[in-house]
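Possible race condition, two jobs.
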Amino acid sequence: MSRPAGARRLGIALTLVGTLTAGCGSDGGTGATSTPAGTSARPAPTTLAKASGKASTSKGTAPPTTSTLGPFPPVLRTSPAGVDAGAIHSLADLPAAFQCPAKPAPITLPAASGSPAAVVCQSKLAAGEALYLWYVDSPDARYLALTAALAKAKYVRGGATWVAGGTLDAGMGQVGGDVYK
């Protein structure tokens, strides 16, 4: 008897998270240093911004195309983003902006060996697929997030303040944004 699609997605996500956290931190490689979503080395805002559910518009500035670390990969195409980029001010804001439920709880992956910290959660915008999410606040942070996303995920999208990676759906639901892979 096969498991329902949601259970398979969660299983795949948890397997990926376990694989990614192996070797992180000073715990001998067990990955036990992962912290719950909303906690990080950076101070988090006292409240999470609520996702408005409205698609972002082109009122903001376009993301840069290069950083001091190197050029970004080419954008293959762009589609309207279902993510409210104005609600994202830190890593802790990503689960709300991507409409991730409280259960299963989002998982924060600590920064490790050149890869920035990320959050993995089941996004309602991606039809329940578990996505890797990175917060970007500078061209260098975007470069590092894109590099990590391209290495870990099959499909990669980006917006003004975020990079998302998924493994199941090439369309990534209603996430939208710049398509890198």
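Job #2 (started ~2 s after job #1):
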Amino acid sequence: FAGGRVVQPIEYRRKFDLDTWYSLYLPFDVTAVQVISGGVYYDLLPYYRRNDGTLKGKQYIIRKATPVSNMPIADFENRYPSESSNGWFDPSEEEYSTFLPQKNTPYIIQFHNAYYQDKWIVFRGQGYADIATTLSSNAAPTTDEVVNIYGNNTMVNQTIAGQSYQINYEEYEGNAWTRYNNITLYPFECYVLANEPTTQRYRIIRRGAGDDSQSGITTGQEQLADDAICEILRVYTANGMILREFRNTTPADVALELNNMVPNGLYIVVGDNNVWKIMIGGR
């Protein structure tokens, strides 16, 4: 479909690998996010950020880029800067129950639960939607300290001339934006424009809160007791990425909650005062 007016209601389907970030840039306002199971469509709700700053689990994680032009690099890296107006934002506690992706807006999206492996995820849209036939104009950042985020809002592959960055969900579980020259961008995916001096400064999209630190993995003592009640518990993958954050709980409770959500592997749990322990497990 080359673009134009879509009269019938839209149903865009795709499958997602678990625990992997994908970019999303749809050319229509979404009216429902659903999963197909046994021929039945079930509505899905996103994870959301509570008013106390913790993340509450639902069916999928989706984060919106704000702003899309001249986003400071520090905000691009810290995908949830809790006291900033910029960065990658989870739906809030007030809006999550009615949250739906908007037209021509950059998002990153991820599924954790094994239930969604190899199932079609559906993004529905209203009929009588106008789909672009060509990419909207784009521009490089004005300084070396910011990035611009765009997307392919057409329904055909597009070539992005020159140097740009695309989320690499095939090699790095979507945790890195990789530089390409003259890339072919698939429909409904995002790309980033940045100046050359900044290319090595924002490979990682962090999965934790904006004030998270990774120092707990290499410091502290391996003496965190299973029944120790911690004000904050952060779970890291073996390569140092923050997986989830918990409040006022114990490592034993965290292990029970994560056991059926994450792949088999090694995880580092960091508690108060950077006291840590290693866990092995998963689904």
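Residues 79-83, 198-221 have pLDDT under 50 and may be disordered.
Logs attached separately.
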